[in-house]
UniProtKB/TrEMBL annotation:
<keyword id="KW-0732">Signal</keyword>
<dbReference type="InterPro" id="IPR051313">
    <property type="entry name" value="Bact_iron-sidero_bind"/>
</dbReference>
<feature type="domain" description="Fe/B12 periplasmic-binding">
    <location>
        <begin position="59"/>
        <end position="328"/>
    </location>
</feature>
<dbReference type="GO" id="GO:0030288">
    <property type="term" value="C:outer membrane-bounded periplasmic space"/>
</dbReference>
<feature type="signal peptide">
    <location>
        <begin position="1"/>
        <end position="26"/>
    </location>
</feature>
<comment type="similarity">
    <text>Belongs to the bacterial solute-binding protein 8 family.</text>
</comment>
<keyword id="KW-0813">Transport</keyword>
<dbReference type="Pfam" id="PF01497">
    <property type="entry name" value="Peripla_BP_2"/>
</dbReference>
<dbReference type="InterPro" id="IPR002491">
    <property type="entry name" value="ABC_transptr_periplasmic_BD"/>
</dbReference>
<protein>
    <submittedName>
        <fullName>Putative ABC transporter substrate binding protein</fullName>
    </submittedName>
</protein>
<dbReference type="GO" id="GO:1901678">
    <property type="term" value="P:iron coordination entity transport"/>
</dbReference>
Length: 328
């Protein structure tokens, strides 16, 4: 999770992980705004300026699982798909992503991507998300119109931003709106089902094999916004921790008091929940541990929060439900 440890994972490792070459065919889409008529050029504003797409893309490359999920949900065929280690699917597929044909190429970071090989796919658009530097963006932009992180307030985009942008680029705005409404309905259902969880504070953290603790400190981080949509709020104590521009920071094991929120999401990179008590003094005394309101995440499930997509959010809800059910 944390860019301070690979954006916790992506920001320091910089995405461009597993390359799935997706040769899936999309089924016909009867979206009223779809590709039956002439294509209207689209300009997308983003962290490095803006990118204009003049024609409906036919050879799409995605960088990161959240963009892949978005296009799968929109029924847009993908030529090549890069998944990073931090995407949570080294084998090229997360539990929430529907089956699709793909060739998987694993890379640790965008810096490891072979641009010559990428160019061989002859992309007409690259949907990239977090790239780590403008230099990498410029390199990709020479190959095809490239969309990096859209938001200028966080290091990743929200699932709504991705879905809406994908709808604009591929002339599927009606479909995008429908998808967003469907997920919003699930989030509202969660809030109605767990009224006692509403307004409770949360912390999204990670523990490293070395015993470090990382926390998300930015209320506008996509993970924070997702949890806020469930009716939770970022713990003020965590929000006050100074970190990097990524909105993520590391705290020493002696600062366990920072993890005093009502609900705790803890990504365990290595080990088990039981091992945390041995590594982190005071862990067993935390309010969330005593109250059984901890949601433990592994290297796959963390991506549902770190890099949320229209497909991963319903899965993320199921991960929070057991903890939410313990609020009385």
């Amino acid at each position: 999770m944390l860019s301070v440890l690979r954006r916790w994972s992506r920001i320091a490792i910089v995405p461009l992980g597993v390359l799935l070459v997706l040769s899936a065919c999309s089924s016909p889409d009867d979206d009223a705004s779809s590709s039956d008529g002439p294509y209207t050029p689209v300009t997308i504003e983003h962290q490095y300026g803006s990118t204009t797409i003049d024609a409906l893309p036919q050879r799409v490359i995605t960088v990161g699982g959240n963009w892949t999920d978005t296009l799968v949900a929109l029924d847009v065929p993908i030529v090549a798909e890069y998944r990073l280690f931090s995407d949570g699917a080294p084998a090229g597929k997360t539990p929430w992503t529907p089956d699709h044909k793909s060739e998987v190429i694993n890379v640790n970071s965008t810096a490891d991507v072979d641009l010559t090989k990428l160019a061989a796919f002859k992309p007409d658009v690259i949907l990239a998300g977090y790239l780590g530097s403008k230099q990498i963006y410029d390199q990709l932009s020479k190959l095809a119109p490239t969309i990096p992180v859209i938001s200028k307030e966080a290091v990743m985009d929200t699932w709504q931003e991705l879905t809406t942008t994908g709808g604009k680029i591929f002339a599927k705005t009606d479909k995008a709106t429908e998808l967003i409404k469907g997920v919003d309905d699930k989030l509202n259902a969660f809030k109605q089902k767990y009224p006692a969880a509403q307004g409770k504070t949360f912390t999204f953290g990670t523990s490293t094999p070395e015993g470090q603790i990382g926390v998300v400190t930015n209320a506008k981080d996509p993970s924070s916004l997702l949890l806020a949509q469930m009716g939770l709020r970022l713990d003020p104590g965590v929000a006050s921790v100074s970190g990097s521009k990524s909105g993520r920071a590391f705290i020493s094991p002696e600062r366990m008091d920072v993890l005093s929120s009502d609900l705790l999401l803890m990504w365990i990179r290595q080990g088990t929940p039981e091992s945390l008590a041995a590594k982190l003094p005071g862990w067993s005394e935390l309010k969330s541990v005593k109250g059984n309101t901890v949601a433990y995440l592994d290297n796959t499930s963390q991506a549902a929060f770190n890099y949320p997509s229209v497909l991963s959010v319903p899965y993320a809800i199921t991960l929070v439900e057991p903890a939410a059910a313990n609020f009385k």
